[in-house]
Amino acid sequence: MAQQQPLQPAYILHSRPYSDSSLILELLTPEYGRIGCVARGARRDKQRRQQSLQPFVPLLVSLLGRGELKTLGPVENAGSALWLKGRAVYAGLYANELLMRLLAVGEAQYEVFACYQTLLQTLAALDGTGAGQLEPPLRRFELQLLQELGSCPQLSYCAHSQGPVTAGACYRLEAETGFVPVHRRGDEREIRGEFSGADLLALEQALQNGEFATTLLAPAKRLTRLLLTPLLGDRPLQSRELFRQVYSNNDR
């Protein structure tokens, strides 16, 4: 007999057709992290798909079975759907794709789940008309996700001195070490992998209080791109490509 797990919070990250009438769903849950399940008959039940089995809808789900691919049992709405508008839709799809690409299957992700909920709530409050609106919540989510995965060094820590970074110094991100000081002449410009100590300290503070100043968005984006590129590999993000096709620019 299939074993039914207790109801737990979930969001749908991705869905695809399965057999003649079913869907395979990829869920984000706090207890099991990313987990796949079969929603049997969901393609026949149009009302169920429209009301519940959609991205950005907070759910309570029950999962049956012992294997890696579960069977979806009863589903309840855990609150009102978070309707994302305009460009915010693509920001949500981008976050979903990051989680699909970066999270291992079946590992608890309590903090990631909470960060994802906060991101969706923030995106839902935007009118979605400008790409600039998306930058602060996306940069914060990316950094939080990278930290939870152990792929982002502590921003305020100097690996060379084994102490806090200094606001007036410059630091280079080394993949296996962390942030190390850079010594160069005053007329030399920072390169892509270098960051001012002041920016690193401000980014650390911004992660804690959730408020990203406009001046931090550029270094935050440089940092997240440096950290995400080796994790994502050469395969492009479909959500980013779709955004570019729809809006004909590269402002995310």
From TrEMBL:
Keyword Mitochondrion: no
Domain DNA replication/recombination mediator RecO N-terminal: 8-73
Record's keyword annotation contains Transit peptide: no
Keywords: DNA damage, DNA recombination, DNA repair
Membrane-spanning ranges: none
One annotated GO biological process: DNA recombination
InterPro entries xrefs: ARFGAP/RecO (IPR037278), DNA_rep/recomb_RecO_N (IPR022572), NA-bd_OB-fold (IPR012340), RecO (IPR003717), RecO_C (IPR042242)
Annotated Pfam families: RecO_C (PF02565), RecO_N (PF11967)
GO cellular component: bacterial nucleoid
SUPFAM superfamilies noted in UniProt: ArfGap/RecO-like zinc finger, Nucleic acid-binding proteins
Family, as annotated: Belongs to the RecO family.
Function: Involved in DNA repair and RecF pathway recombination.
Name of the featured protein: DNA repair protein RecO
Gene: recO
